[in-house]
Design a protein that fits this description.
Length: 450
């Protein structure tokens, strides 16, 4: 008789947890998984998937405007928020079902309830307990907000997908990718948007030219960006909200969206009871193989706060399964991970920023271009694309690539393969561009920036 109920039990059925459980089961492991919310996790249920659908919706108003320059006469258009939300919900329901089927078809037993560690081999599931040889923590992250009077009057990205009506005025508090994406979504749908951020430029952690370009472009679109400002208090006022900033400025709004960051979702998980180490940010500390300080407990995804992206959680989950059940020790490689921000215009980035490259390599070459994309030569829209290559001078390896502009994410995926393989600037130069495209700029820049 088996010593444990399962070879592996996973707490959290998001991207990382589902991938790890499916692959492990494929290697013959007996696997159980629990989820207190809906299967699919942050990305599928309350993150990148519904948000990307809303980004598409928000961009139509510009498409209608741009069509005139190409000879189209577009009739009266009207946006209906409830229709978008209902259709979005149908798609999320479908994906939730797909994820459940993936688990079922792989032979993974799903428990739709919260999981909590009792000891190193035991998980409490409501009024019952199960045991497992190995336990994987894949509980993800959760929105966090600063403390100020009236903060409870705001909502987070968890709730924004379920607003019954569209707010006419929106204050977005934060400067990261979630904040800039929702600022663009609401602005595109016709809301009056003010974005408040404590830093001097948006998208902390990205290349400075990306940050400066995006800030300029979203301001052109009509978003009021208040930089180097914090919210002092929020209060109800005339049936809406009044936001007071640290400089005394007041903003009246119908919605306050708190997009000031996310934190690992470790509350009431039982980590202290079992002895799983966490760092000062509340993240579970793991090694290159996702092993925690407790030998048989592992963690992947946002709860580890390594690189908080869905494809990274998928990679970490698969590497865990291959290592523990596939007899293929697979360390997690976080170098040259591409990322995208679905702002308007979007951002694509892979590798080092200019400052990071100077710190690591010292002598670098920077190739940079800013231009009006071909589409807007007829649309008349005042929007520019920025592209940037960062090259290590000695090896001539391309160590960073950054784009702000139409289709940035779609362009970036292919170039990320080249950068991951260690492509040099000479190899970029030897590649024939596709004309006329914006992407060809990345293989035709010949003169380093001063």
């Amino acid at each position: 008789m088996a010593q444990y109920d399962y070879d592996l039990f996973v707490i959290g059925a998001g991207s990382g947890g589902v991938r790890a459980s499916r692959i492990s089961a494929g290697y013959g492991a007996r696997v159980g998984i629990c989820e207190e919310s809906r299967v699919g996790g942050t990305c599928v249920i309350r993150g990148c998937v519904p948000k990307k659908l809303m980004v598409y919706a928000a961009h139509f108003h510009e498409d209608f405007e741009d069509a005139r320059g190409f000879g189209w006469t577009v009739g009266e258009s009207r946006f209906d928020w409830p229709t978008l939300i209902a259709n979005k919900d149908k798609e999320i329901d479908r994906l939730n079902g797909v994820y459940k089927s993936l688990l079922s078809n792989a032979g993974v037993e799903l428990f739709e309830t919260r999981g909590e560690l009792v000891d190193a081999h035991t998980v409490r599931l409501g009024d019952r307990e199960v045991t497992a040889d190995k336990i994987l923590l894949a509980v993800g992250g959760w929105p966090s907000a600063p403390a100020f009077p009236g903060v409870e009057l705001g909502i987070t990205s968890n709730e924004v997908f379920h607003l019954p009506t569209q707010p006419k005025r929106v204050v977005v508090y934060g400067g990261g990718y979630i904040a800039v994406e929702f600022a663009g979504i609401f602005q595109g749908m016709g809301s009056q948007v003010t974005q408040v951020y404590r830093g001097p430029s948006l998208l902390r952690g990205f290349d400075q030219d990306v940050r400066d370009t995006l800030t300029t472009e979203i301001q052109k679109k009509g978003i009021n960006v208040a930089l180097s400002r914090t919210i002092s208090r929020a209060e109800k006022h005339d049936g809406a909200l009044r936001i007071t900033l640290d400089d005394g400025t007041t903003i009246d709004t119908d919605l306050l969206l708190l997009a000031t960051g996310r934190a690992p979702k470790i509350s009431h998980l039982g980590l202290e009871r079992v002895g799983v180490e966490t760092n000062s940010d509340g993240a579970v500390v793991v090694d290159d193989y996702s092993q925690t300080s407790v030998e048989n407990i592992f963690a992947v995804g946002d709860v580890t706060n390594r690189v908080n992206l869905t494809p990274v959680a998928l990679m970490e989950g698969q590497a865990f399964a291959q290592t523990q059940f596939g007899d293929m020790p697979t360390p997690v490689d976080h170098k040259y991970i591409p990322s995208a921000v679905f702002s308007q215009p979007p951002v694509g980035s892979v590798g080092l920023t200019e400052d990071e490259a100077r710190s690591e390599y010292g002598d670098i070459e920077v190739y940079q271009s800013s231009f009006r994309p071909m589409k807007h030569t007829l649309s008349g829209r005042d929007e520019r694309t920025m592209m940037k290559l960062i090259v290590a001078a000695d090896s001539q390896q391309v160590v960073g690539l950054h784009i702000v502009g139409l289709d940035a994410a779609e362009m970036l995926q292919g170039f990320s393969v080249a950068i991951k393989m260690g492509a040099t600037k000479a190899q970029f130069d030897a590649t024939i561009g596709i004309h006329p495209t914006a992407a060809e700029e990345l293989v035709t820049m010949r003169t380093p920036r001063d």
